Amino acid sequence: MQTTPVLFLLSLPAIVWGRCNIPAYFHGDWYSRESGTDIKTLINADKWDSNEDETQLECVDIFIHSNPGLQQDGDNVTMLMVKTGGTNLNTCYMCVDVLWRTPNILQYRQEDCITARSGSQISLNDSCKSMNPWYGLPSIDVTFTMFKQSLEKINCVTTFEGVYQFSYEVDTGGGGICNHPDSQIKACQEPGSQYVDNDVFVMTYRKCLDVSTSKNEQIRYQCMGSWFAVRSGIGYTYAAVADTVEQDTREKFKCMMTLKNQKDANNQIRWVMSRFPDCTSLSGVYRGPLKLVLTRIPISNDYNTPRCSFDKDIVGNWFIKRNRITIDDKMHFPPALNQMDFYLSCQQTNGTRYLLSQTVLGKCDVNYVCMDIEPRNERFLQLKVGVPFRVDLRELEDPGLLFRANCETLADTSDILLDKYPISI
Ligand SMILES: *[C@@H]1O[C@H](CO)[C@@H](O)[C@H](O)[C@H]1NC(C)=O
Ligand SMILES: *[C@@H]1O[C@H](CO)[C@@H](O)[C@H](O)[C@H]1NC(C)=O
Ligand SMILES: *[C@@H]1O[C@H](CO)[C@@H](O)[C@H](O)[C@H]1NC(C)=O
């Protein structure tokens, strides 16, 4: 016990004055593409070591631009660093600003070597531009984006959630827009694990015969997180993704950008995506190497493929006031009716009772609901609607069980009347 303070005192002089530790949320193996070159950087508490040359950087002093309003796992920092190693005998101090974006994404700017002016000494406050409130932290245009090579799992919800059809246009090659109905993004939890976070999404490209730059390809992207940043006075949402199987690092990571709250009449959402791992090539939702226009679509999977059909008396167009409800192989309620934009597909039936699977446009979840559907008279169709419920995979193996347990008696029913004719009021 008594030796501890002595050891501590003895080790003190060995520490270079002002040396600091690089915060843990920056540690890891990072990839960036800088002016066409692949850069790999290893960061730990002591050093910032890139494969660029023989040298490495050590932190001398650090300022943490803490942002208490943001509940984030990391902070932006400005570091005064010193170059070590290499053959150049002149000591080089430099300022490095690092913007913490997500656990997988950093953006940084490294200044040139500082030459001390006579009369002033090199220090974080005196030598680093970004410590001057006039300059502040660098904007996205002047930073390099670093992608973490050993990814941390991040929920995709902040990037994509649900199912989309998309059109795409590759900037180079002049091929034009490919808008194929089967080009889709599916950002859903795996079936059967619907309560687990989803950290990947699947992007399926389909080829258009008249678009030479289009392709047939399916890519599983892992989400690297998303962040908000201002570019040319406009606030954009950025996201980064990693192709889960791509070996070539240059092709693996992509930067994406969109505008939140796009006011589009057709409810479409524009995104742009980079070709290489960089974010500076994205300069607006109409300008980028790959332009995407996303439209929410109903999910189609094993759960909502129809397994029975509606009685011929009830197939057709129906109305609630002026809103059209169509019943063909599925029953579609339009969005106008209190956000009920859902699709019901017949799974089992006995007489006038139906077991239906229910999906909401663009969402991944599948619920089940029982209905008793019967014409009330020549004009009206009466729906007695049960309470929606979830099922797990085991229950689906014996579907008769679902019907017996839920549809034979319709507890807590509410009635909906569908009219053969639209009425305006
Ligand atoms: C880092 O700085 C940027 C640009 O000033 C800001 O938008 C962002 O919120 C900051 N991030 C954190 C974690 O403080
Ligand atoms: C450097 O600047 C920061 C923020 O402006 C301030 O809190 C700190 O005391 C300054 N340090 C020195 C040594 O002047
Ligand atoms: C259909 O419902 C009737 C009356 O509720 C019942 O007796 C019969 O067993 C059911 N049929 C099937 C195949 O479940």
- Just name the CATH architecture of the largest domain: Beta Barrel
Number of domains: 3
- Got a strand count? 25
Rounded to an integer in angstroms, the radius of gyration calculated over CA atoms is: 29 Å
CATH class call of the largest domain: Mainly Beta
Outline the low-pLDDT stretches. 1-17
List the strand order in the largest sheet.
1-2-3-4-5-6-7-8
- Specify the biggest β-sheet: 8 strands, antiparallel, barrel
The number of helices is: 5
Q: What is the fold named in CATH at topology level of the largest domain? A: Lipocalin
Based on helices, strands and strand pairing, what is the structural class? mainly beta
- Overall mean pLDDT stands at 86
The percent of residues in helical segments reads: under 10%
**CA-based shape:** elongated
Q: Which small-molecule ligands are present, each listed once?
A: 2-acetamido-2-deoxy-beta-D-glucopyranose
Run of helices and strands: HEEEEEEEHEEEEEEEHEEEEEEEEEEHHE
Question: What is the strand content?
Answer: 35-45%
- What is the terminal-to-terminal distance? 88 Å
Signal peptide: 1-18
Keywords: Signal
Pfam family, one: DUF7043
Domain DUF7043: 305-388
Tell me what the structure shows.
With 425 residues, this protein is mainly β. The chain folds into 3 domains: 3-148, Lipocalin (Beta Barrel), CATH 2.40.128; 156-296; 316-419, no CATH class. Helices cover 7% and strands 41% of the residues. It is built from 5 helices and 25 strands. It has helices at 3-11, 124-127, 249-252, 393-397, 399-406, and strands at residues 28-34, 37-43, 47-50, 56-65, 76-84, 93-102, 105-110, 144-148, 162-170, 177-178, 184-187, 200-205, 217-231, 234-243, 253-258, 268-273, 290-296, 316-320, 323-327, 330-332, 342-350, 353-360, 366-375, 380-385, 414-419. It has an 8-stranded antiparallel β-barrel. Strand 18 (316-320) and strand 19 form a beta hairpin. The chain is elongated. It starts with a helix and ends in a 6-residue tail after the last strand. The model is unreliable at 1-17 (pLDDT under 50). Bound molecules: 2-acetamido-2-deoxy-beta-D-glucopyranose (3 copies).
